[in-house]
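Thread: Modeling a multi-component assembly for a lab meeting

Hi all, long-time lurker, first post. My supervisor asked me to bring a structural picture of a complex we are working on to next week's group meeting, and I have zero experience with this. I have the sequence lines for every component (327 residues in total). Could someone generate the structure of the whole assembly? Inputs are pasted exactly as I received them:
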Amino acid sequence: MKTIKLLKTAIDIYYYLMLMALVFGVITLPILLFTNQSYQVNIFDSEPIDLGMLDTLETLIIVVSMIAVLGIYFVAIRLIKQTVNIMSYGNYFSDDVIINLKKIGQLFIVCAFGFSVLKLLINLVLFSQFSININSTFMIFLIMGLFMMFLSEAFASAKQMKDENNLTI
Amino acid sequence: MKKVKILYTVIFISIVLYIIHFIMNTFLMYYKPEFLNFPKTFYSQFIFGYYTQFVSLFFSILTFIALFYVKSGLGVIIKEGFFNAKCSKQFKISGNIFLITGSLSFLWYLLLLFYSKGKMPISGASDVLLIIIGLGMLVITDIVKNGHLIKKENDLTI
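Re: Modeling a multi-component assembly
Sure thing. I ran the full set together rather than chain by chain. Output:
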Protein backbone atom coordinates (compact mmCIF):
# COMPACT_ATOMS: atom_id res chain seq x y z
CA MET A 1 0.00 0.00 0.00
CA LYS A 2 2.89 2.31 0.83
CA THR A 3 4.52 1.62 -2.56
CA ILE A 4 1.39 2.41 -4.54
CA LYS A 5 1.03 5.74 -2.73
CA LEU A 6 4.66 6.52 -3.58
CA LEU A 7 4.03 5.53 -7.21
CA LYS A 8 0.88 7.68 -7.28
CA THR A 9 2.83 10.70 -5.98
CA ALA A 10 5.69 10.11 -8.48
CA ILE A 11 3.28 9.83 -11.41
CA ASP A 12 1.31 12.89 -10.28
CA ILE A 13 4.53 14.94 -10.11
CA TYR A 14 5.68 13.62 -13.51
CA TYR A 15 2.26 14.30 -15.08
CA TYR A 16 2.00 17.88 -13.82
CA LEU A 17 5.63 18.67 -14.74
CA MET A 18 4.94 17.33 -18.22
CA LEU A 19 1.73 19.35 -18.46
CA MET A 20 3.62 22.50 -17.46
CA ALA A 21 6.38 21.78 -20.00
CA LEU A 22 3.79 21.20 -22.75
CA VAL A 23 1.89 24.42 -21.95
CA PHE A 24 5.18 26.35 -21.79
CA GLY A 25 6.26 24.81 -25.11
CA VAL A 26 2.97 25.59 -26.84
CA ILE A 27 3.15 29.24 -25.69
CA THR A 28 6.84 29.89 -26.42
CA LEU A 29 7.32 27.81 -29.59
CA PRO A 30 5.38 30.10 -32.03
CA ILE A 31 6.94 33.25 -30.52
CA LEU A 32 10.50 31.94 -30.89
CA LEU A 33 9.90 30.43 -34.31
CA PHE A 34 8.56 33.65 -35.79
CA THR A 35 11.45 35.66 -34.35
CA ASN A 36 14.03 33.24 -35.85
CA GLN A 37 15.77 32.76 -32.52
CA SER A 38 17.74 29.73 -31.42
CA TYR A 39 15.29 27.17 -29.97
CA GLN A 40 16.86 23.98 -28.66
CA VAL A 41 14.75 20.92 -27.88
CA ASN A 42 15.75 17.44 -26.83
CA ILE A 43 13.48 14.43 -26.75
CA PHE A 44 14.47 11.79 -24.19
CA ASP A 45 18.08 10.77 -24.80
CA SER A 46 18.52 12.43 -28.19
CA GLU A 47 21.00 15.24 -28.77
CA PRO A 48 19.59 18.80 -28.57
CA ILE A 49 18.16 20.05 -31.88
CA ASP A 50 18.16 23.74 -32.76
CA LEU A 51 14.86 24.46 -34.51
CA GLY A 52 15.95 28.05 -35.17
CA MET A 53 18.27 26.95 -37.99
CA LEU A 54 15.47 25.28 -40.00
CA ASP A 55 13.25 26.86 -42.64
CA THR A 56 9.45 27.13 -42.21
CA LEU A 57 8.48 23.86 -43.92
CA GLU A 58 11.17 21.84 -42.12
CA THR A 59 10.18 23.35 -38.79
CA LEU A 60 6.53 22.60 -39.48
CA ILE A 61 7.26 18.93 -40.27
CA ILE A 62 9.39 18.46 -37.14
CA VAL A 63 7.06 20.39 -34.81
CA VAL A 64 3.86 18.66 -36.03
CA SER A 65 5.37 15.18 -35.69
CA MET A 66 6.85 16.08 -32.28
CA ILE A 67 3.48 17.33 -31.03
CA ALA A 68 1.77 14.17 -32.34
CA VAL A 69 4.21 11.76 -30.63
CA LEU A 70 4.43 13.73 -27.38
CA GLY A 71 0.62 14.03 -27.41
CA ILE A 72 0.27 10.23 -27.56
CA TYR A 73 2.86 9.89 -24.78
CA PHE A 74 0.98 12.45 -22.68
CA VAL A 75 -2.32 10.54 -23.14
CA ALA A 76 -0.55 7.33 -22.01
CA ILE A 77 0.82 9.03 -18.89
CA ARG A 78 -2.65 10.45 -18.14
CA LEU A 79 -4.12 6.95 -18.42
CA ILE A 80 -1.41 5.59 -16.07
CA LYS A 81 -2.26 8.35 -13.60
CA GLN A 82 -5.97 7.39 -13.75
CA THR A 83 -5.20 3.67 -13.44
CA VAL A 84 -2.88 4.09 -10.44
CA ASN A 85 -5.54 6.29 -8.87
CA ILE A 86 -8.12 3.47 -9.20
CA MET A 87 -5.58 0.91 -7.92
CA SER A 88 -4.69 3.04 -4.89
CA TYR A 89 -8.22 2.35 -3.57
CA GLY A 90 -7.47 -1.39 -3.67
CA ASN A 91 -9.45 -2.13 -6.88
CA TYR A 92 -6.61 -4.01 -8.56
CA PHE A 93 -8.65 -6.34 -10.74
CA SER A 94 -11.45 -4.03 -11.96
CA ASP A 95 -12.58 -3.72 -15.60
CA ASP A 96 -11.34 -0.12 -15.80
CA VAL A 97 -7.81 -1.16 -14.78
CA ILE A 98 -7.77 -4.03 -17.31
CA ILE A 99 -9.01 -1.85 -20.20
CA ASN A 100 -6.70 1.05 -19.28
CA LEU A 101 -3.62 -1.20 -19.06
CA LYS A 102 -4.35 -2.58 -22.52
CA LYS A 103 -4.77 0.95 -23.93
CA ILE A 104 -1.56 2.15 -22.21
CA GLY A 105 0.32 -0.82 -23.69
CA GLN A 106 -0.94 -0.04 -27.19
CA LEU A 107 -0.10 3.67 -26.80
CA PHE A 108 3.44 2.87 -25.60
CA ILE A 109 4.02 0.64 -28.62
CA VAL A 110 2.79 3.48 -30.88
CA CYS A 111 5.21 5.79 -28.96
CA ALA A 112 8.10 3.35 -29.55
CA PHE A 113 7.60 3.55 -33.31
CA GLY A 114 6.60 7.25 -33.15
CA PHE A 115 9.84 8.32 -31.44
CA SER A 116 11.84 6.26 -33.95
CA VAL A 117 10.02 7.91 -36.89
CA LEU A 118 10.62 11.29 -35.27
CA LYS A 119 14.35 10.59 -34.96
CA LEU A 120 14.41 9.41 -38.57
CA LEU A 121 12.67 12.64 -39.66
CA ILE A 122 15.09 14.78 -37.64
CA ASN A 123 18.09 13.02 -39.21
CA LEU A 124 16.53 13.41 -42.66
CA VAL A 125 15.67 17.10 -42.27
CA LEU A 126 18.71 18.28 -40.28
CA PHE A 127 21.53 16.15 -41.67
CA SER A 128 19.97 14.78 -44.93
CA GLN A 129 20.68 11.27 -43.62
CA PHE A 130 18.33 8.31 -43.89
CA SER A 131 19.11 5.95 -41.03
CA ILE A 132 17.02 3.35 -39.24
CA ASN A 133 18.43 2.17 -35.93
CA ILE A 134 17.30 0.51 -32.70
CA ASN A 135 17.85 2.95 -29.84
CA SER A 136 17.26 2.66 -26.10
CA THR A 137 14.07 4.77 -26.27
CA PHE A 138 12.54 2.34 -28.78
CA MET A 139 13.43 -0.68 -26.65
CA ILE A 140 12.19 0.90 -23.38
CA PHE A 141 8.82 1.84 -24.89
CA LEU A 142 8.43 -1.51 -26.63
CA ILE A 143 9.18 -3.41 -23.39
CA MET A 144 6.91 -1.14 -21.35
CA GLY A 145 4.09 -1.46 -23.89
CA LEU A 146 4.30 -5.24 -24.02
CA PHE A 147 4.57 -5.40 -20.23
CA MET A 148 1.40 -3.34 -19.81
CA MET A 149 -0.48 -5.56 -22.27
CA PHE A 150 0.76 -8.65 -20.42
CA LEU A 151 -0.39 -7.11 -17.12
CA SER A 152 -3.82 -6.45 -18.62
CA GLU A 153 -4.08 -10.16 -19.52
CA ALA A 154 -2.83 -11.24 -16.08
CA PHE A 155 -5.31 -8.94 -14.32
CA ALA A 156 -8.17 -10.24 -16.49
CA SER A 157 -7.22 -13.78 -15.46
CA ALA A 158 -7.06 -12.75 -11.77
CA LYS A 159 -10.46 -11.06 -12.07
CA GLN A 160 -11.96 -14.25 -13.44
CA MET A 161 -10.49 -16.26 -10.55
CA LYS A 162 -11.73 -13.72 -8.02
CA ASP A 163 -15.25 -13.80 -9.50
CA GLU A 164 -15.23 -17.65 -9.37
CA ASN A 165 -14.05 -17.46 -5.75
CA ASN A 166 -16.81 -15.05 -4.80
CA LEU A 167 -19.44 -17.24 -6.54
CA THR A 168 -18.27 -20.34 -4.61
CA ILE A 169 -18.68 -18.57 -1.28
CA MET B 1 0.69 -16.20 -22.88
CA LYS B 2 1.57 -15.13 -26.43
CA LYS B 3 2.33 -11.58 -25.27
CA VAL B 4 4.52 -12.85 -22.42
CA LYS B 5 6.52 -14.87 -24.90
CA ILE B 6 6.94 -11.84 -27.19
CA LEU B 7 7.97 -9.71 -24.19
CA TYR B 8 10.42 -12.40 -23.10
CA THR B 9 11.97 -12.43 -26.60
CA VAL B 10 12.23 -8.60 -26.73
CA ILE B 11 13.93 -8.55 -23.30
CA PHE B 12 16.25 -11.33 -24.40
CA ILE B 13 17.21 -9.28 -27.49
CA SER B 14 17.83 -6.24 -25.22
CA ILE B 15 20.11 -8.34 -23.01
CA VAL B 16 22.05 -9.53 -26.06
CA LEU B 17 22.36 -5.90 -27.28
CA TYR B 18 23.61 -4.88 -23.82
CA ILE B 19 26.24 -7.64 -23.90
CA ILE B 20 27.41 -6.46 -27.35
CA HIS B 21 27.55 -2.89 -25.96
CA PHE B 22 29.70 -4.03 -23.01
CA ILE B 23 32.04 -6.02 -25.26
CA MET B 24 32.43 -3.01 -27.59
CA ASN B 25 33.16 -0.72 -24.61
CA THR B 26 35.77 -3.10 -23.21
CA PHE B 27 37.35 -3.45 -26.63
CA LEU B 28 37.49 0.35 -27.08
CA MET B 29 38.99 0.72 -23.59
CA TYR B 30 41.98 -1.45 -24.46
CA TYR B 31 42.33 -0.76 -28.19
CA LYS B 32 41.52 2.93 -28.54
CA PRO B 33 41.36 4.33 -32.07
CA GLU B 34 43.45 7.43 -32.67
CA PHE B 35 40.52 9.86 -32.65
CA LEU B 36 39.63 8.72 -29.10
CA ASN B 37 43.13 9.24 -27.73
CA PHE B 38 42.66 12.50 -25.87
CA PRO B 39 45.44 14.21 -23.88
CA LYS B 40 45.24 14.09 -20.07
CA THR B 41 44.34 17.79 -19.92
CA PHE B 42 41.13 17.01 -21.85
CA TYR B 43 39.78 14.85 -19.02
CA SER B 44 40.54 17.47 -16.35
CA GLN B 45 37.43 19.45 -17.36
CA PHE B 46 35.15 16.53 -16.35
CA ILE B 47 33.85 15.95 -12.86
CA PHE B 48 35.68 12.65 -12.18
CA GLY B 49 38.37 13.22 -14.80
CA TYR B 50 39.14 10.11 -16.91
CA TYR B 51 36.67 7.99 -14.93
CA THR B 52 33.61 10.15 -15.83
CA GLN B 53 33.07 8.03 -18.95
CA PHE B 54 32.48 4.95 -16.77
CA VAL B 55 29.54 6.46 -14.84
CA SER B 56 27.02 5.83 -17.61
CA LEU B 57 28.52 2.35 -18.08
CA PHE B 58 27.82 1.69 -14.40
CA PHE B 59 24.16 2.69 -14.89
CA SER B 60 23.98 0.47 -17.98
CA ILE B 61 25.30 -2.49 -15.93
CA LEU B 62 22.63 -1.88 -13.26
CA THR B 63 19.87 -1.72 -15.91
CA PHE B 64 21.27 -4.90 -17.47
CA ILE B 65 21.07 -6.75 -14.12
CA ALA B 66 17.48 -5.51 -13.60
CA LEU B 67 16.51 -6.67 -17.10
CA PHE B 68 18.06 -10.03 -16.36
CA TYR B 69 15.80 -10.43 -13.32
CA VAL B 70 12.71 -9.37 -15.34
CA LYS B 71 13.64 -12.01 -17.93
CA SER B 72 13.95 -14.68 -15.22
CA GLY B 73 10.59 -13.64 -13.75
CA LEU B 74 8.92 -13.88 -17.15
CA GLY B 75 10.58 -17.27 -17.69
CA VAL B 76 8.96 -18.51 -14.48
CA ILE B 77 5.58 -17.11 -15.62
CA ILE B 78 5.86 -18.96 -18.95
CA LYS B 79 6.60 -22.21 -17.07
CA GLU B 80 4.26 -21.95 -14.08
CA GLY B 81 1.53 -19.46 -15.04
CA PHE B 82 0.79 -15.84 -14.17
CA PHE B 83 0.68 -15.83 -10.37
CA ASN B 84 3.45 -17.50 -8.41
CA ALA B 85 5.78 -16.59 -5.55
CA LYS B 86 8.98 -17.13 -7.55
CA CYS B 87 8.28 -14.46 -10.17
CA SER B 88 7.19 -11.93 -7.54
CA LYS B 89 10.63 -12.29 -5.92
CA GLN B 90 12.39 -11.69 -9.26
CA PHE B 91 10.18 -8.67 -10.00
CA LYS B 92 10.85 -7.25 -6.54
CA ILE B 93 14.63 -7.41 -7.06
CA SER B 94 14.36 -5.86 -10.54
CA GLY B 95 12.04 -3.13 -9.21
CA ASN B 96 14.53 -2.22 -6.49
CA ILE B 97 17.41 -2.13 -8.98
CA PHE B 98 15.41 0.06 -11.42
CA LEU B 99 14.53 2.39 -8.53
CA ILE B 100 18.18 2.68 -7.42
CA THR B 101 19.41 3.16 -11.02
CA GLY B 102 16.79 5.86 -11.74
CA SER B 103 17.55 7.71 -8.50
CA LEU B 104 21.35 7.55 -8.94
CA SER B 105 21.08 8.55 -12.59
CA PHE B 106 18.86 11.52 -11.69
CA LEU B 107 21.32 12.57 -8.94
CA TRP B 108 24.16 12.31 -11.45
CA TYR B 109 22.23 14.54 -13.87
CA LEU B 110 21.64 17.11 -11.08
CA LEU B 111 25.35 16.97 -10.16
CA LEU B 112 26.29 17.62 -13.80
CA LEU B 113 23.76 20.45 -13.96
CA PHE B 114 25.39 22.17 -10.95
CA TYR B 115 28.91 21.37 -12.16
CA SER B 116 28.21 22.89 -15.59
CA LYS B 117 26.56 25.91 -13.88
CA GLY B 118 23.23 25.25 -15.62
CA LYS B 119 24.73 24.86 -19.10
CA MET B 120 23.41 21.29 -19.45
CA PRO B 121 20.22 20.94 -21.55
CA ILE B 122 17.06 20.22 -19.52
CA SER B 123 16.78 16.45 -19.37
CA GLY B 124 16.30 13.76 -16.73
CA ALA B 125 12.86 12.65 -18.00
CA SER B 126 14.15 9.14 -18.70
CA ASP B 127 15.57 8.92 -15.15
CA VAL B 128 12.21 9.85 -13.63
CA LEU B 129 10.60 7.28 -15.95
CA LEU B 130 13.05 4.66 -14.63
CA ILE B 131 12.08 5.54 -11.04
CA ILE B 132 8.39 5.16 -12.01
CA ILE B 133 9.14 1.80 -13.68
CA GLY B 134 10.91 0.67 -10.48
CA LEU B 135 8.00 1.68 -8.28
CA GLY B 136 5.59 0.10 -10.80
CA MET B 137 7.49 -3.20 -10.57
CA LEU B 138 7.23 -3.12 -6.77
CA VAL B 139 3.46 -2.52 -7.01
CA ILE B 140 3.20 -5.41 -9.49
CA THR B 141 5.00 -7.60 -6.93
CA ASP B 142 2.26 -6.85 -4.39
CA ILE B 143 -0.45 -7.56 -6.98
CA VAL B 144 1.19 -10.84 -8.05
CA LYS B 145 1.24 -11.89 -4.37
CA ASN B 146 -2.45 -10.94 -4.10
CA GLY B 147 -3.25 -12.94 -7.26
CA HIS B 148 -1.24 -15.89 -5.94
CA LEU B 149 -3.37 -15.89 -2.79
CA ILE B 150 -6.62 -15.82 -4.83
CA LYS B 151 -5.30 -18.67 -6.99
CA LYS B 152 -4.46 -20.73 -3.90
CA GLU B 153 -7.96 -20.19 -2.47
CA ASN B 154 -9.48 -21.11 -5.82
CA ASP B 155 -7.44 -24.32 -6.06
CA LEU B 156 -8.37 -25.27 -2.49
CA THR B 157 -12.10 -24.76 -3.21
CA ILE B 158 -11.94 -27.08 -6.20
